[in-house]
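User: Predict Large ribosomal subunit protein uL10's structure from this.
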Amino acid sequence: MARSDKAAAIASLKEKFSSADATVLTDYRGLTVAAMQTLRRSLGEGSTYAVAKNTLTRIAANEAGIEGLDDKLVGPTALTFISGDVATAAKGLRDFAKDNPLLVIKGGYMDGRVLSADEVKKLADLESREVLLAKLAGGLKANLTKAAQVFSALPAKAARGFGALQDKAAADPSVIGGAGEASDQEPENADA
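Assistant:
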Protein backbone atom coordinates (compact mmCIF):
# COMPACT_ATOMS: atom_id res chain seq x y z
CA MET A 1 0.00 0.00 0.00
CA ALA A 2 1.46 3.35 -1.00
CA ARG A 3 2.10 5.98 1.64
CA SER A 4 -0.64 8.26 0.28
CA ASP A 5 -3.12 5.36 0.33
CA LYS A 6 -2.21 4.63 3.94
CA ALA A 7 -2.71 8.29 4.90
CA ALA A 8 -6.11 8.31 3.19
CA ALA A 9 -7.11 5.05 4.92
CA ILE A 10 -6.04 6.43 8.31
CA ALA A 11 -7.98 9.66 7.71
CA SER A 12 -11.08 7.69 6.70
CA LEU A 13 -10.85 5.40 9.75
CA LYS A 14 -10.25 8.38 12.05
CA GLU A 15 -13.40 10.07 10.70
CA LYS A 16 -15.42 6.87 11.22
CA PHE A 17 -14.12 6.48 14.78
CA SER A 18 -14.96 10.12 15.55
CA SER A 19 -18.46 10.07 14.06
CA ALA A 20 -19.58 6.62 15.28
CA ASP A 21 -21.69 6.19 18.42
CA ALA A 22 -19.95 2.86 19.01
CA THR A 23 -17.41 0.58 17.36
CA VAL A 24 -17.28 -3.21 17.62
CA LEU A 25 -14.20 -5.24 16.68
CA THR A 26 -14.61 -8.77 15.34
CA ASP A 27 -12.46 -11.58 14.02
CA TYR A 28 -13.84 -12.55 10.64
CA ARG A 29 -11.35 -15.32 9.81
CA GLY A 30 -13.00 -18.05 7.74
CA LEU A 31 -16.11 -16.13 6.69
CA THR A 32 -16.99 -16.14 3.00
CA VAL A 33 -17.71 -13.00 1.04
CA ALA A 34 -21.37 -13.99 0.86
CA ALA A 35 -21.51 -14.45 4.65
CA MET A 36 -19.95 -11.03 5.18
CA GLN A 37 -22.55 -9.46 2.88
CA THR A 38 -25.29 -11.14 4.91
CA LEU A 39 -23.67 -9.77 8.06
CA ARG A 40 -23.58 -6.24 6.64
CA ARG A 41 -27.30 -6.42 5.86
CA SER A 42 -28.14 -7.72 9.35
CA LEU A 43 -26.48 -4.79 11.12
CA GLY A 44 -29.23 -2.34 10.33
CA GLU A 45 -29.27 1.23 9.16
CA GLY A 46 -26.37 3.47 10.09
CA SER A 47 -23.85 0.68 10.60
CA THR A 48 -20.89 -0.17 8.40
CA TYR A 49 -18.73 -3.27 8.52
CA ALA A 50 -15.21 -2.93 7.15
CA VAL A 51 -11.95 -4.85 7.22
CA ALA A 52 -8.89 -2.75 8.03
CA LYS A 53 -5.24 -3.35 8.77
CA ASN A 54 -4.52 -3.40 12.48
CA THR A 55 -1.63 -0.94 12.25
CA LEU A 56 -3.72 1.61 10.36
CA THR A 57 -6.64 1.06 12.75
CA ARG A 58 -4.37 1.57 15.77
CA ILE A 59 -3.00 4.85 14.34
CA ALA A 60 -6.49 6.12 13.40
CA ALA A 61 -7.93 5.23 16.81
CA ASN A 62 -5.08 7.02 18.60
CA GLU A 63 -5.53 10.09 16.39
CA ALA A 64 -9.26 10.05 17.20
CA GLY A 65 -8.41 10.03 20.91
CA ILE A 66 -9.35 6.38 21.49
CA GLU A 67 -6.92 4.38 23.58
CA GLY A 68 -7.06 0.84 24.88
CA LEU A 69 -7.89 -1.04 21.69
CA ASP A 70 -4.31 -2.22 21.05
CA ASP A 71 -4.78 -5.60 22.73
CA LYS A 72 -7.91 -6.25 20.63
CA LEU A 73 -6.14 -5.43 17.36
CA VAL A 74 -4.50 -8.83 17.00
CA GLY A 75 -5.17 -11.14 14.09
CA PRO A 76 -7.67 -10.43 11.32
CA THR A 77 -9.92 -7.61 12.51
CA ALA A 78 -13.06 -6.14 11.04
CA LEU A 79 -14.68 -3.01 12.44
CA THR A 80 -18.36 -2.30 12.81
CA PHE A 81 -18.95 1.45 13.02
CA ILE A 82 -22.39 2.07 14.51
CA SER A 83 -24.24 5.35 14.14
CA GLY A 84 -27.69 5.32 15.66
CA ASP A 85 -29.21 2.39 17.51
CA VAL A 86 -26.30 0.49 19.07
CA ALA A 87 -28.52 -2.30 20.41
CA THR A 88 -29.83 -3.21 16.95
CA ALA A 89 -26.34 -3.52 15.48
CA ALA A 90 -25.09 -5.47 18.51
CA LYS A 91 -28.05 -7.86 18.12
CA GLY A 92 -27.22 -8.29 14.45
CA LEU A 93 -23.63 -9.20 15.32
CA ARG A 94 -24.65 -11.52 18.16
CA ASP A 95 -27.29 -13.34 16.10
CA PHE A 96 -24.96 -13.69 13.13
CA ALA A 97 -22.21 -15.05 15.42
CA LYS A 98 -24.66 -17.67 16.77
CA ASP A 99 -25.34 -18.92 13.24
CA ASN A 100 -21.71 -18.47 12.09
CA PRO A 101 -19.29 -19.40 14.88
CA LEU A 102 -16.37 -18.20 12.74
CA LEU A 103 -17.32 -14.61 13.62
CA VAL A 104 -15.84 -13.80 17.02
CA ILE A 105 -16.63 -10.55 18.80
CA LYS A 106 -13.39 -9.19 20.27
CA GLY A 107 -14.74 -6.11 22.01
CA GLY A 108 -15.63 -2.55 21.25
CA TYR A 109 -15.60 1.10 22.16
CA MET A 110 -18.53 3.29 23.24
CA ASP A 111 -19.01 6.48 25.25
CA GLY A 112 -15.33 6.95 25.96
CA ARG A 113 -14.57 3.46 27.21
CA VAL A 114 -13.34 0.18 25.83
CA LEU A 115 -15.86 -2.68 26.00
CA SER A 116 -15.13 -6.35 26.47
CA ALA A 117 -16.77 -8.98 24.26
CA ASP A 118 -19.23 -9.77 27.07
CA GLU A 119 -20.22 -6.11 27.39
CA VAL A 120 -20.91 -5.94 23.65
CA LYS A 121 -23.11 -9.03 24.00
CA LYS A 122 -24.97 -7.35 26.89
CA LEU A 123 -25.69 -4.41 24.59
CA ALA A 124 -27.37 -6.90 22.29
CA ASP A 125 -29.76 -7.83 25.09
CA LEU A 126 -31.07 -4.28 25.28
CA GLU A 127 -34.30 -3.53 23.53
CA SER A 128 -34.15 -1.29 20.48
CA ARG A 129 -34.28 2.47 20.86
CA GLU A 130 -37.80 2.59 19.45
CA VAL A 131 -39.08 0.02 21.96
CA LEU A 132 -37.44 1.84 24.88
CA LEU A 133 -38.88 5.17 23.73
CA ALA A 134 -42.33 3.59 23.34
CA LYS A 135 -42.14 2.20 26.88
CA LEU A 136 -41.07 5.59 28.21
CA ALA A 137 -43.91 7.32 26.38
CA GLY A 138 -46.39 4.75 27.67
CA GLY A 139 -45.21 5.25 31.22
CA LEU A 140 -45.45 9.02 30.92
CA LYS A 141 -48.90 8.80 29.37
CA ALA A 142 -50.12 6.52 32.16
CA ASN A 143 -48.88 8.94 34.82
CA LEU A 144 -50.45 11.90 33.04
CA THR A 145 -53.74 10.01 32.73
CA LYS A 146 -53.71 9.27 36.46
CA ALA A 147 -52.98 12.92 37.23
CA ALA A 148 -55.81 14.06 34.97
CA GLN A 149 -58.20 11.67 36.71
CA VAL A 150 -57.17 12.98 40.12
CA PHE A 151 -57.54 16.60 39.05
CA SER A 152 -60.94 16.01 37.45
CA ALA A 153 -62.14 14.07 40.50
CA LEU A 154 -61.34 16.90 42.94
CA PRO A 155 -63.99 19.36 41.70
CA ALA A 156 -66.58 16.58 41.48
CA LYS A 157 -65.86 15.45 45.04
CA ALA A 158 -65.91 19.05 46.26
CA ALA A 159 -69.28 19.66 44.55
CA ARG A 160 -70.74 16.51 46.12
CA GLY A 161 -69.36 17.56 49.52
CA PHE A 162 -70.81 21.07 49.23
CA GLY A 163 -74.14 19.62 48.09
CA ALA A 164 -74.23 17.28 51.10
CA LEU A 165 -73.30 20.19 53.39
CA GLN A 166 -76.06 22.32 51.87
CA ASP A 167 -78.64 19.53 52.41
CA LYS A 168 -77.48 19.05 55.99
CA ALA A 169 -77.52 22.81 56.64
CA ALA A 170 -81.05 23.05 55.27
CA ALA A 171 -82.14 20.40 57.76
CA ASP A 172 -80.04 21.77 60.66
CA PRO A 173 -78.96 25.45 60.25
CA SER A 174 -76.66 25.25 63.27
CA VAL A 175 -74.22 23.09 61.29
CA ILE A 176 -72.69 26.11 59.59
CA GLY A 177 -73.81 28.85 61.90
CA GLY A 178 -77.26 29.60 60.62
CA ALA A 179 -76.98 28.82 56.96
CA GLY A 180 -79.94 29.76 54.88
CA GLU A 181 -81.00 32.61 57.12
CA ALA A 182 -80.68 36.13 55.83
CA SER A 183 -78.79 38.51 58.06
CA ASP A 184 -80.58 41.66 59.24
CA GLN A 185 -77.32 43.40 60.01
CA GLU A 186 -75.49 45.45 57.50
CA PRO A 187 -71.84 44.61 56.97
CA GLU A 188 -69.43 46.78 58.83
CA ASN A 189 -67.19 49.08 56.90
CA ALA A 190 -63.60 47.85 57.11
CA ASP A 191 -62.25 51.40 56.71
CA ALA A 192 -63.99 52.71 59.78
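The chain has two domains: 3-126, 132-176.
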